[in-house]
Design brief:
The structure holds two protein chains of two kinds.
Chain A: E1 4-6, H1 7-18, H2 30-43, E2 47-63, E3 66-84, E4 87-93, H3 98-111, E5 122-124, E6 132-133, H4 134-137, H5 143-146, H6 150-167, E7 171-189, E8 194-212, E9 215-226, H7 237-251, E10 255-256, E11 260-266, H8 273-278, H9 285-288, E12 310-313, E13 334-339, E14 342-343, H10 350-356, E15 364-365, E16 374-375, E17 379-382, H11 389-394, E18 398-410, E19 415-427, E20 430-436, E21 439-443, H12 444-447, E22 451-454, E23 459-467, E24 470-478, E25 481-489
Parallel strand pairs in A: 6-8, 10-20, 11-18, 17-24
Antiparallel strand pairs in A: 1-5, 2-3, 2-7, 3-4, 7-8, 8-9, 11-25, 12-13, 12-17, 13-14, 15-16, 18-19, 19-20, 19-21, 21-25, 22-25, 23-24
Helix pairs in contact in A: 1-2, 2-3, 6-7
Chain B: H1 3-17, E1 23-38, E2 41-58, E3 64-69, H2 74-88, H3 121-137, E4 142-161, E5 166-182, E6 190-191, E7 194-198, H4 206-219, E8 223-224, E9 229-235, H5 237-246, H6 253-257, E10 277-281, E11 304-308, E12 311-312, H7 319-325, E13 333-334, E14 340-341, E15 346-350, E16 367-373, H8 376-379, E17 380-381, E18 386-397, E19 400-404, E20 407-412, H9 413-418, E21 420-423, E22 428-430, E23 433-435, E24 438-447
Helix pairs in contact in B: 1-2
The chains are: A alpha+beta, B alpha+beta.
């Protein structure tokens, strides 16, 4: 238990210390937050959590060889979550002054029928652990100074756009967008968690629209990174431009895919979006607690083909979904989801764990302070198998090769879909001609049993995932895989 | 002085202190409360007070620096102005934003509802628990409502600039959404949906939302496979507005000027759709709950015809695009690093005087009714014009209606617009617009039957 002091004096002291908050998140916040957490406990809450966030984003856009926009965004805020049993109240605000924090706590308590203690009474503080400061442990404090300046980012993007203009034929439009997203977070909760982290995500995406008479095709290429400050200045412009040029060249005059049920081979890296959409979301306790996933009671059971093993983790160096701690202050973890087709683990945040009994996995994530954390994927991928990519392709007599997938989604019935950004027909075990306009749809519980071959060429790709707690950075990945049968929508 | 007035007063003082000659400030302050239910208990109650302010500072060269901030303390606003000023020195001069010539013009004289007093979170909690109970009791096959919520929002939008423009609109609204899931032994789970929006909790059509969502999900229980092929396809108001929204680059002046559109500036006056089709943006439609009076640049909003009898008659504009195209302002600016353009409330109707034989779903020999398209982000190629989208819907065969198992509808938007053969008389209002059932010939449907 902490010091017991009179409420009025306590408030004055805490307010004085909270006024220092704008210098950054750290030890200065220990006393005010200990105090507020103690008040929350005294009010009758079982658990209270403060999530503070400061963020500095920079968006730069280049189009057709010209700088189009530079857009910085500065944000600050707090999310306060209070539990009484498994019921919770959540309040967010941009006001991180002492009064703002207090008001949020008061409002969250009132949602659960609780109120702050009043009058001259003694209330124990919550004792917080020594600050677990991943920004210090991992040398992240210097990242902001090491990041390229605005002018350097602009120059890098103009170089990429120029390379795209050189390489891509029939170009009507080309553009490059980049995001630098620096975030500082601090979590303090009534179970004693007191942890701070700094995250730095950077991404650049190039796209081109090619038009030749009636033929039109838009192609895009994205790269992203976590934690390498110089990433945007070191992008390989030629690699990006050549990839766009090749795809546009193949697809500009391609026929639309003929619809039907087909065997499909998905290429490695971003092909992993199939697992993300068709299975990963259904292993989040957010879905398990609502029983809105066909797998909610299948732990320990065969839910996929025996060829399939899959992981979700936050530990890989530089990957987009890596996190040293989740947004509930739990250190990063590595979670085996499926082993040889058998469901081994779900992804659980605090509330999901409370509601389902599955252990927390360091997966409590949120877009920002205005969302409460929920179980979310990090870096999610299918493990490599023993086949070569050529083996996998040769196993299909007539089917579709998805060299690059677009985005996708899954609903609460387990129906998923995703677009094919670059498709090719497989005929007689060989890749033959490009096709466009395909979308893949199916049922998660069925498709997992139809992934019958995994190659030995694992790859990963950065992406964004939007769900109940907003948009978070993720990685998808897989080797080349074969899906025995899937509905291909087209014309 | 309330929060918004205080914020603007501080901002003007800071701009003076920083000796900024030309600047503007826009943004939103919102207060939300939302509740959801899960099996008889409250799933979560959440509330948020949020502020987003965008400041723009003009450099003497004409370039404009922009910064967005949610930190409205004096320090936060000062940092935002300072950053915008710094960025203005590096920002592009070409196509630099201008003040809207109508930022100080009179607003439309339309009746907007006074913001109603919000109800307490307790009232919302009681309501959502009752709603959940009513939906769950409606049929034994309804096992859960995975997505449900009741949300109350109060929003103040504002715009002001250094030459005296000062706009402010205080609004409030409330909405309810329900996505019940039903499941029968040995059959795939199915979902229904409904969303209702109103200016206050008291006026919210909760009964309608329950009825629609339940009817939808139950209608999908007895689903059947559909053979792939070409079908006459009827789009519900929700489906056609979703699709048109995904291809809004057709009439978005910013997209056209950026060459990111299926249209060109010279297409104005061209017939791009069936003569049956008229489309406008109608922000002051009497049933538009949000009813914006000015856009992000302070320009008054107004009714803007887009397609008349299939002819493209105007594009949606912001100040810069209108100047570049030498077209009138339309009041569709959306603030950002570059000012964008977006519709407020699309209104699709059969063209005035257009004649066509009435059609009824019940009389159709074999058609597909697309109730809701999904996965627009994955299935729409907005610059290619093509789409291939999963949907929920029914097949009508000689008066019999049956739900369709997983299927996609695919086509080209420009072909679709020309292949409209009927637009019904019955207009339906949804939160994003108003439309009627729209019949299109010859679209590709892919079912799981091959």
């Amino acid at each position: 238990m902490g010091l017991q002091v009179d409420m009025q004096r306590a408030e004055q002291l805490a307010a004085e210390q909270a006024s220092q908050l704008f210098g950054g998140f750290g030890e200065d916040l220990r006393q005010p937050l200990s105090k507020l957490l103690g008040w929350g406990r005294a009010a009758g809450a079982d658990f209270i959590e403060f999530f503070l966030e400061r963020r500095s984003e920079l968006n730069v856009s280049v189009e057709n060889g010209k700088l189009r926009s530079i857009s910085p965004r500065l944000s600050i805020g707090v999310g306060v979550r209070v539990f009484r049993g498994v019921q919770d109240g959540f309040v967010s605000s941009n006001d991180v002054s002492w009064n703002g924090l207090r008001r949020c706590l008061e409002q969250a308590l009132s949602m659960l029928g609780l109120s702050l203690p009043t009058g001259p009474r003694l209330v124990p503080d919550v004792v917080l652990e020594p600050l677990r400061d991943y920004a210090v442990f991992r040398n992240k404090e210097g990242w902001r100074a090491e990041m390229p300046k605005i002018a350097e980012v602009c120059a890098s993007l103009l170089d990429i756009d120029a390379a795209v203009a050189r390489e891509v034929q029939f170009r009507q439009f080309s553009g490059v967008d980049a995001i630098q997203d620096w975030q500082e977070v601090l979590v303090a909760s009534s179970d004693g968690v007191f942890a701070r982290d700094i995250r730095l995500h950077q991404t650049a995406a190039a796209n081109a629209l090619c038009v030749d008479g009636e033929h039109r095709i838009q192609v895009a290429e994205r790269d992203g990174n976590f934690g390498h400050p110089n990433f945007l200045a070191a992008l390989d412009q030629d690699k990006i431009a050549v990839a766009l040029a090749e795809r546009a060249g193949h697809l500009l005059r391609a026929d639309f895919v003929q619809a039907g049920e087909l065997p499909v081979v998905m290429a490695n890296a971003f092909g992993g979006v199939i697992f993300h959409e068709a299975c990963g979301h259904l292993l989040e306790t957010t879905q398990v607690e609502k029983k809105s996933t066909p797998f909610w009671d299948k732990k320990g059971e065969m839910i996929a083909h025996e060829a399939l093993t899959a992981w979700d983790e936050g530990l890989s160096e530089g990957l987009f979904g890596s996190i040293d701690m989740d947004d509930e202050g739990m250190p990063g973890q590595r979670t085996l989801l499926i082993e040889d087709g058998i469901l081994r683990n779900f992804l659980a945040d605090r509330l999901g764990s409370q509601k389902t009994g599955h252990p927390r996995t360091g997966s409590g994530r949120r877009q920002n302070h205005s969302y409460s954390a929920a179980s979310r994927m990090r870096n999610t991928y299918i493990a490599p198998g023993s086949h070569t990519p050529d083996d996998v392709i040769a196993s299909v007599d007539h089917g579709l090769y998805c060299k690059k997938l677009g985005g996708g989604s899954v609903d609460a019935t387990g129906q998923f879909n995703f677009g094919v950004a670059e498709g090719w027909m497989i005929e007689g075990g060989k890749i033959t001609r490009p096709v466009k306009g395909a979308i893949l749809i199916g049922s998660a519980s069925e498709i997992m049993r139809r992934i019958s071959m995994c190659a030995n060429d694992s790859g990963t790709s950065p992406g964004f995932c939007g769900s109940v707690s907003g948009r978070v950075y993720v990685t998808v990945g897989q080797p080349h895989i074969r899906v025995d049968r899937i509905t291909v929508g087209g014309r | 002085m309330d929060q918004v007035d205080a914020l603007l007063a501080t901002a003007h003082q800071l701009a003076g202190r920083l000796e900024l000659k030309k600047y503007d400030i826009s943004g939103k302050v919102s207060r939300d409360v939302s509740v959801s239910a899960e099996k008889g208990s409250v799933d979560q109650i959440s509330a948020s007070d949020s502020t987003n302010v965008l400041v723009r500072v003009w450099h003497p060269s004409g370039a404009v620096g922009v910064t967005v901030t949610s930190d409205i303390s004096e320090n936060g606003l000062e940092a935002a102005f300072a950053m915008a000023r710094d960025v203005s020195a590096q920002a592009p001069k070409e196509d630099a934003p201008i003040f809207s010539p109508e930022a100080m013009a009179d607003l439309a004289d339309v009746a907007t509802p006074e913001p109603s007093e919000p109800v307490s979170p307790g009232v919302l909690v009681d309501a959502i628990l009752s709603i959940e109970d009513r939906v769950m009791s409606a049929h034994p096959a309804i096992k859960a409502i995975p997505y449900n919520g009741l949300v109350q929002q109060a929003v103040t939008s504002f715009y002001c600039h250094s030459e005296g423009a000062a706009r402010r609109k205080d609004g409030a609204h409330c909405y309810v959404y329900l996505y019940p899931k039903a499941e029968e032994e040995g059959r795939a789970p199915r979902m229904g949906h409904s969303t209702k929006l109103s200016t206050s909790f008291g006026k919210l059509d909760i009964d309608g939302c329950i009825e629609e969502s339940v009817n939808r999900v139950l209608s999908h229980l007895a689903y059947e496979k559909i053979p792939s092929g070409k079908y006459t396809t009827v789009f519900s108001p929700h489906a056609i507005l979703s699709l048109l929204g995904a291809f809004s680059n057709l009439w978005n002046a910013r997209s056209i000027l950026d060459k990111k559109s299926l249209s060109k500036a010279e297409d104005l006056g061209a017939s791009i759709a069936s003569p049956l089709l008229s489309l406008s943006d109608h922000p002051h439609h009497p049933k538009n709950t949000l009813m914006p009076l000015f856009d992000g640049e302070g320009t008054p909003t107004r009714h803007t015809p887009i397609l008349q009898a299939g002819k493209l008659v105007s594009f949606l504009q912001c100040a810069n695009t209108a100047q570049a195209m030498q077209q009138p302002l339309t009041g569709h600016a959306v603030m950002g690093a570059r000012v964008g353009v977006s519709s407020h409330f699309l209104h699709l109707q059969r063209a005035e005087g257009a004649e066509c034989a009435p059609r009824r779903l019940e009389d159709a020999e074999d058609i597909v009714y697309v109730d809701k398209v999904t996965a627009l982000h994955a299935g729409v190629q907005a610059l290619q014009g093509s789409f291939s989208l999963p949907f929920d819907g029914w097949r009508y065969q000689g008066g019999k209606r049956s739900s369709i198992e997983a299927a996609t509808v695919a086509g080209d938007i420009l072909d679709l617009l020309k292949q409209i053969v009927y637009i019904s008389d019955e207009e339906v209002v949804i939160p994003s617009g108003a439309a009627a059932d729209t019949w299109v010939e010859g679209l590709s449907i892919t079912g799981s039957e091959g």
